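Quick one: co-fold with ME8.
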Amino acid sequence: MAKFFITTAIHYVNGPPHIGHVYETIGADVLARHHRLRGDEVLFLTGTDEHGIKVQRKAAAEGVTPRALADRNSLKFQQAFDRLLISNDDFIRTTDRRHVRAVQRFWQAVETHGDIYDAKYEGWYCIQDENFVTEKEAKEIQEHPELGKTVEWQSEDAKFFRLSAFQGHVERLIEGQADFIRPENRRNEMVSSYLRPGLRDVCVSRTTLDWGIPVPNAPGHVVYVWFDALINYISAIGYGGDEEVFRRWWPADVHVIGKDIVKFHTALWPAMLHAAGLEPPRRVFGHGFLTVGGKKMGKTLGNVVDPLEIAARYGPEALRYGLLRENDFGGDGNYDADAIHTRYHSDLANGLGNLVNRTLSMLERYLYGCHHAQPELPEAETALLARFGALFARLDEMMDAFRFSQVLAEIWELIAALNKYIDDTKPWELAKAQKPDPRPRLHQIFATLAEGLRWTTAMVAPFLPDAAGKIWSVFHPGRPLEKWTFRQIAARGAIPDQTVLAKPPVLFPRVEKPSA
Ligand code: ME8
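Sure, here it is.
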């Protein structure tokens, strides 16, 4: 059994989750669920990033301690993820003891390797990104207030990580390993704007801040928030605690993150790992950003979308489906409330929901709900079902490339083909005939529909886990989908002969559009 370790970025706790955060988590969840169905042993990790200036200042502004703010917002992330059917196996908080211990061990490993030195930091710092920026970048931020960012001049005694010494290592990784950074355009961006100019040493401790992990043997120093945060990917799997578990899971198979933080994950992180004698992650996928109504989301614009509001109206699956269907995960996308409303009704209620409903209603009416297994089917039916097999054969590759929108479009073509098959074969007319006995033909039609629907259900399950679970239990009562792998599902004739297929409750009830 292959192992599959997938992570998302960990979220700053200066506020509750917005639609952009959950977009990433939903994408990662879909791939994690898909790998479970492939039979892989999956570890899906997400969590919260709780230290640093941004959180400390937000807490001060609210008159609470950073710890209290972190507790409150970390819980909001966990609750939102539950509500959105996120199947993470672990949730790491950078204030967890296991994490603090791992960061301090890691620090010592890098220091022993000779890659940390004392110096004075003088330069610009961007609070929103928790990032040391160049003169040029600082100027750009100052000239573009619409970016919603600010920079401050900082000067303090600090410790530096010798990132520049890892230039060759990082180049070999990014340029030598073609699929290390995905999609391709992110890799090109990384090479031209960051790697070519040359990696510069980074300041990794702060003395003007106390909300952070204490640097070992250096009173007054706390670990820079990015050096701290990246380590979450290994602290959660036992680094510095349980060596055996750690060796089993590391390296991560994929870090799923937004395009704004690719450089931290593909240069700083691999260099840190190398300095500590560890392997780099296998792959980093930098997804695009979601805008709202075509505009960058922000408090000042007042267009921050709360994912829980949409889930309350349409259910979590409409959001999962709508976001991944409407946007190409690797590129930039947009959240559009109307599109979610339309997709929910056209694709979920009228497409999939209606197919399930009409198939099972007719089966009940014409054949007492009884499935008659068909070892052989006529040519047309065999050809129709072959389309499912053909898509299934390409599924792993498309999913691994995060081409969710394309996968969904292709699955919905097959749903449309099944709906059309019903229209063409007109079971309601056949059922009226007395002679010849229409039942053998009806058996064929409904066996074809059942098999097609079964495939559809397995392929959509990562996107629509609840609905798929309900449909699956029609075909295999008492044998939930989580207990199956694609290989078992692919075995033909898996719906036992004479199974009574009972109609599930309405999957996607109609929803009124909110009044503007
Ligand atoms: O960057 N659309 O945390 P974060 C899509 N703590 N993705 C978005 C987005 C949007 N509008 N806004 C944010 C951090 N994201 C660090 C990460 S990892 C060791 C530390 C994505 O809360 C963003 O790109 O600002 C990132 O991947 C994730 O949400 C968390 O962002």
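If it helps, Residues 13 and 73 are 5 Å apart (CA to CA).
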